[in-house]
Amino acid sequence: MPTSSVKPDIRPISLPFLRRSLPPNAPHYTKMVQLSNPSDVRPDDKIIALMGPTGTGKSTFIDIASGQKKKTAGHSLKSETSKVRAIRIPHPDPENKNSYVLVDTPGFNDTNKTDTEVLALIAGWLKDTYKKDVKLAAIVYLHRISDNRMSGSPLQNLRMFSKLCGDGATTHVVLATTMWSKVKAGVGEKREAELKAKFWNAMLQLGSQTDRFEDNAVSAWKIIDQAVSGKQESPLLLQEELVDLNRRLSETEAGKTLYSSLQKLIVEQKEVIRKLRDEANHEQNQQLVKELTMQYEELETSLAATFEQLKEMKIPFGRRLRMLFSFSKPRARPIEI
Ligand SMILES: Nc1nc2c(ncn2[C@@H]2O[C@H](COP(=O)(O)OP(=O)(O)OP(=O)(O)O)[C@@H](O)[C@H]2O)c(=O)[nH]1
Ligand SMILES: [Mg+2]
């Protein structure tokens, strides 16, 4: 087995596919390097970002593509990836001499982080790398085919992603479905057709592609190759806004989308609180009143946290006015889903 002394993160090849397709002593996966900072990326790296809601399999995809299955992916219902994590790795095809950087991002609807914090983390990484003139070569956006409805959080995530990406970088996007083993083939196919016809349609019209991730390294690299293949790299809308136009995060299309969703959430939370209060007022059962009060208090805390996020994402009136009269506009435009 090949060994390495370069970095402690380096692991030998472990997947049968890679053993079959590479000579037994191939140095390929022994060359994996963890990049601690955005400044560690190089202009010649092919950067592949994994995005999508929490628990869709972003970390699993990277673990499988890099031959370190089940190293960083989570196994609980809690969100796992808490910061942007990147690894540099060569392509499994020895003819392909490019170095690839796979970027793992935390998903929105994280159980430990607010969406504002998640957006700030992703934006920070994208901003720092773009400042070094490094653009993403591809984005793999994951969606769980086992989700039975495209509403609530998956839809909100997709909207946020479409605003962050913009129409300039859509040809580098592969919208990939995961967890096919958890659904009956017919059900999965029906959901996939609906995604393509409805929710993904705007992005597909703009040149994005779709694929299925089949839980193996061959499938992961097929998706990566498909997303990268010979296209001119272009900045994401969010990168243009933050770096070229010097906007604050709250002033970007993604930031504004988050702001509206927080406003909506506040209205919903207030309504639930009102209903709980009414119910508790009319209830005679002491035990039930106690439970309702507990729920009520939890929601009040959650509402206060949403207000805090909203405050953070609010654009001061003066800046809003200035933006309105500004002639500098990004080249890319937001995509409406
Ligand atoms: N069957 C199946 N399970 C998967 C697949 N991808 C991920 N899982 C499981 O789903 C769970 C969550 O996967 P992760 O890879 O941690 O998801 P993530 O998108 O990185 O989640 P966050 O880090 O929380 O944003 C883990 O238990 C994985 O083993 C897949 O393609 N098929
Ligand atoms: Mg993860």
Automatic annotation (TrEMBL):
Residues 48-116 form the G domain. It comes from the Eukaryota. Transmembrane segments: none annotated. Keywords: Coiled coil, Hydrolase. InterPro entries: GTP-bd (IPR006073), P-loop_NTPase (IPR027417). It holds the Pfam family MMR_HSR1. Residues 259-309 form a coiled coil. One of its GO terms (molecular function) is GTP binding. This is P-loop containing nucleoside triphosphate hydrolase protein. It comes from Collybia nuda.
